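Structure tokens
________________
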Amino acid sequence: MRGFGVVCWLLLVSFRAPAQTPDLPPRLPAHTHQADLKTDATPGPHPLEASDLEPFFDGIVPLQLERSDVAGASVLVMQNGQVLLEKGYGYADLKSKKPVDPANTIFRLASISKLFTWVSVMQLAEQGKLDLDTDVNRYLDFPIRPAFSHPITLRNLMTHTGGFEQENRDIIVTNPKQPISLRDFLIRNQPTRMFAPGTVPAYSNYGVGLAGYIVQRVSGQPFEQYVEEHIFAPLKMMHSTFYQPPRAPLRGLPSEGYPTDTQKPPIGFEIFNPAPAGGVSSTAADMGRFGQALLNGGELDGNRILKPETLAAMWTPQFRASDQLPPIAMGFYQDWRNNLRWIGHEGDLVAFHSLFMLEPSHQLLLFLSYNSAGGGERTRPEIIDMFTDRYFPGQTRPSFVALPRKELEDIEGVYQSTRREDSGRLKLLSLLSQRVATVDKEGVLHIEDIKDLRHHPLKWKPIGKDLWQEMDGQRRVFAIRDQGGRVVRLAYDFPGVQAQRVPWYEHEGPVLTAVGASLAVLILVVLAPLIRLGRKLILRRRPPLAPQPGTHWLPLTTQVAAGVWVVLLVTLGICMSVLGGEDAMPATSAWDKYFVLLNIVTAVAIAFSLAPVISAIRIWGHATLRKISMLKYSLVAIACLVLCWFAIHWHILGPVRI
């Protein structure tokens, strides 16, 4: 399917914006479900105690730091309010060899910030100041643009079902001299709404930012100050803050954040916008106090941040595609493995990658944070998988079922994430991140590029109608059908994102093949006169070769059109490949001038493309024209039309603001 798409790969190498949550597939381990699984006899669990935990983590974390080139990590394990392990590994500052101190070294926790935002919302709801099910415009001083004839509510924002498309502009900056207020960020960067509220999950930092601004408006305090006074202070979280960067006396405590190659200079303090979605800085010890309060019904050391019934409501499932999959509650999402039901959140910046999970039935808390870009892919899922399997083993064997072949094949198709940008510059990302689902002759489901921690492709088989489970693991996939019975989306173990079926005209394979072939044709157009010139110079003493009768050379305007397209696309591909990668920072408003230039050059390319189209139409009127010339003119015209469609549809020519 990809064919000539390889030719245009450099063109299409794209920015990798830092993910703020697991996407497709979820990074966290999947669940088991007792109704569908047969349990085999397994060895008893290891004792969950300090004497076993420390050597367990000592055998894993240092190896992770070395393998993934991570500077340092902070770990906390608690049960029943008791600290079983609180330990730092590696360095907070490689240059000075400053070790990680879990009590005092501040790590950036990214999307774990959202839990503090939702606690703040529920505090105000307890006081009767917020209604979770009313239009959020009631609490704002700027409008959320109407769409789908349905208002967005705070409950929608909590479950990431507000319907917003992805928005990455100015989401991370490292220059504190260019601050942007929460209100200004939300006004400047309001995304388009892709889905009706409450229907499709599309994880949204913007939606959490709206909730934080509502807290600020209703409380009358800046969001950072509100959280400090109503959560951090009561819980005595003395090393936690939403101020970016931290103010005195915490200014010297944050760990440095490192790129994938820790020999390079630190990235700098990553300022996250909007702050309620990712701005918190904290320590392992402080996160332990927050977790204790949650596990204790909202109270710690006589200080209460939530009523028990409020916290119970926050942990009640609110949205999921199937009762066979983990749900999202009010801001917290569940993750299932063996017989555990973890609930909490992960967080990712460019350099920092963290996990905060609770298991209420066992009064268990697990916190991890890494301070380098290399800590984002394998480290956390390895820890939570191995931890759960060691201390809460539950070897399971799924009961696969036989279904009609037609029913199995309904799931086949091309899918893209519901967390994506559709109306801005980065729509191209959705083209490059599509996944193809196929069912082989044995009835095994394969989803392109979804792999386990050993990078082996995952395989699923059905355990019920529209429900598939990993053959050698616990991950699940659920096929969501429309009213006509057609599979339109896939749900995974992470409930905040789904995969949506791609329209046929946007399938990656045909699109990349068409673009690659078109680019190849225009490259030949550019090379042809250069080859003829070279032949003349080499054979200048021989008589020139005369063209055969009926041969027509391409006119200069056509050659210019081809040249502009080739220069534009190759230059764009090189720039994007240089700017891409795990360490790349998301685009900011400073990039606008480059997008203006890109629009100008693309518009010129499209304008010049009229010439080969007109030439092709005219040339077909020549009765004596050679067929090869007719084919040549036609191919060039088609190539230009394909690239014009591609540039417009995928927003190479489009809005200046991403």
In short: Residues 157 and 207 are 5 Å apart (CA to CA).
